[in-house]
Design goal:
Blueprint (H helix, E strand, L loop, with lengths): L2 E6 L3 H16 L3 E2 L8 E6 L4 H20 L4 E6 L6 H7 L5 E2 L26 E5 L1 E2 L10 H5 L3 E2 L2 H13 L4 E5 L16 H9 L6 E5 L8 H9 L6 E3 L7 H6 L6 H14 L4 E8 L6 H14 L3 E6 L7 H5 L6 H24 L5 E10 L2 E5 L5 E4 L9 E9 L4 E4 L1
Parallel strand pairs: 1-2, 1-3, 3-4, 4-5, 6-9, 9-10, 11-12, 12-13, 16-18
Antiparallel strand pairs: 7-8, 14-15, 14-17, 15-16, 17-18
Helix pairs in contact: 6-7, 10-12
Bound molecules: S-adenosyl-L-homocysteine (SAH) and iron/sulfur cluster (SF4).
């Protein structure tokens, strides 16, 4: 029986794409194996958003090149943002890789499987990702994504809806609609579709309990979307709204297209329009020329905005990006690290404070699995919740009374 192994790093879009590839292969009689050594086909789904991710990909490829010497029949496929559009050059550089395809495009191993048959029913994770828009048109000055994932391309509403139904038939109870900027969904479609109207469609699917979406862009998020979040019963009270910096000059040099005043207004609108909404953000520290004072502005903004969680990264210059071409990467790695830790410390205190306010409350948890004898799942505000119970709760929504909190998860009982 043919076997496969998929290695995935990076964003939720990569994870969702890997799940689609898994389904495709399973539908063709392939069996997933845990180790590359035991597989006939290894797929590497890569990320290059920071140099550290790219290094891991190169490392993985070198290990596979070595493995291929003792397993000459092994087929290797490479996808994700490591793959540039110049496939001929990639072939020259990595001759031991059999198939290349860029992030989000159709797989090229057509001699192995019929790649047209993506849409067959398949077992799906309780919380499944579903890509609604590929690519990005924003060109933030630090970001490599537009160079690797290409321009924005929205999927047709009908395509998304039918894949959503397949996923729900396969057991999904929560769908996470994915895109680098979900707020620009539909601008390239003829019928004036937008994220709000797409949510209305998906909200009608029987058997589906919850809908989330990410990532939002502060410059594009609309009032219409906030209203949909408030009025559609399946849409969860949670959002990732990357601010990237708490300093207007840095935001401008990042080419983010908004300032803090605009971001503050959005926060206000969201929090009054969607009561109890949990908001997370992304931050980059050590952007070229970021002074101590500018960094302090970001720290101050965290105190003001009180996010539920923050993903923080040290700036890493990426090929082709404007920032890498026009600015010197002048903040010392140890200073970047210090700033990253300061953000993490401040945020873990804030998250601890927010989460401790949930102790004594009952939250609705959609159960996704079991770990070390405990059931786990997420609240509608995306808090990870553990509880113990002898019953089988997989895929069910249960009220859990919170008894213990930490910055990263909650514990309680039914
Ligand atoms: N489309 C999303 C996220 C894209 S990349 C957005 O607009 O925010 C995911 C995260 O990686 C970004 O939010 C950013 O915080 C981080 N990131 C992207 N490029 C980076 C770089 N060159 N150095 C460090 N972090 C980076
Ligand atoms: Fe990168 Fe900016 Fe596009 Fe996000 S919006 S993927 S950060 S260019």
């Amino acid at each position: 029986m043919p076997s496969y192994n998929i290695w995935t790093i990076g964003c939720q879009m990569n994870r969702a794409e890997s799940e689609r590839l898994e389904a495709l292969l399973e539908n063709h009689g392939y069996t997933g194996v845990a180790k590359a050594e035991d597989a006939g086909l290894v797929i590497v789904n890569s990320c290059v958003v920071r140099q550290s991710a790219e290094n891991r990909v190169i490392n993985k490829l070198m290990r596979l090149r070595y493995l291929k010497r003792s397993h000459p029949g092994l087929k290797i496929a490479l996808t994700g943002c490591f793959v540039t559009s110049d496939i001929a050059q990639m072939r020259k550089k990595y001759p031991f890789v059999d198939y290349f395809f860029t992030a989000g495009s159709s797989p090229t191993f057509t001699d192995l499987v019929d790649v047209e048959s993506y849409s067959l029913p398949r077992p799906a994770a309780i919380s499944s990702g579903l890509t609604i828009i590929q690519g990005c048109d924003n060109f933030c000055s630090y970001c490599i994504v537009p160079y690797r994932r290409g321009r924005e391309q929205s999927r047709q509403v009908a395509d998304i809806e039918s894949e959503a139904r397949y996923l729900v038939e396969g057991g999904a109870r929560e769908l996470v609609l994915l895109g680098q900027n979900v707020d620009s969904y539909g601008h390239d479609l003829p019928d004036k579709a937008d994220l709000a109207s797409l949510l209305e469609h998906i909200n009608c699917i029987d058997g589906l309990y919850r809908i989330r979406f990410l990532t939002n862009h502060p410059k594009d998020m609309s009032e219409r979307l906030i209203n949909s979040m408030a009025s559609l019963d399946k849409v969860c009270q949670q959002l990732n709204l990357p601010v990237q910096s708490g300093d207007d000059d840095i935001l401008q040099r990042m080419k983010r297209g908004y300032n803090l005043a605009h971001y503050r207004k959005l926060l206000e609108g969201l929090r009054s329009g969607v009561p109890g909404v949990a908001i997370t953000t992304d931050i980059i520290v050590g952007f070229p020329g970021e002074s101590r004072e500018q960094f302090d502005n970001t720290l101050k903004f965290l105190e003001e905005a009180r996010f539920d969680a923050v993903h923080v990264a040290a700036y890493s210059p990426r090929p082709q990006t404007l920032a890498s071409l026009v600015y010197t990467d002048d903040i010392d790695p140890s200073e970047k690290d210090r700033r990253r830790k300061l953000i993490e410390e401040a945020q873990s205190r804030i998250s601890a404070e927010i989460n401790s306010g949930l102790v004594g409350q009952t939250v609705e948890v959609l159960v996704e699995g079991r770990k070390k004898g405990k059931w786990y799942g997420r609240s509608r505000t995306d808090k990870l919740v553990f509880f113990e119970h002898p019953g089988n709760w997989l895929g069910r929504q249960v009220p859990v009374k919170i008894e213990h909190s930490s910055p990263w998860f909650l514990k309680g009982s039914i």
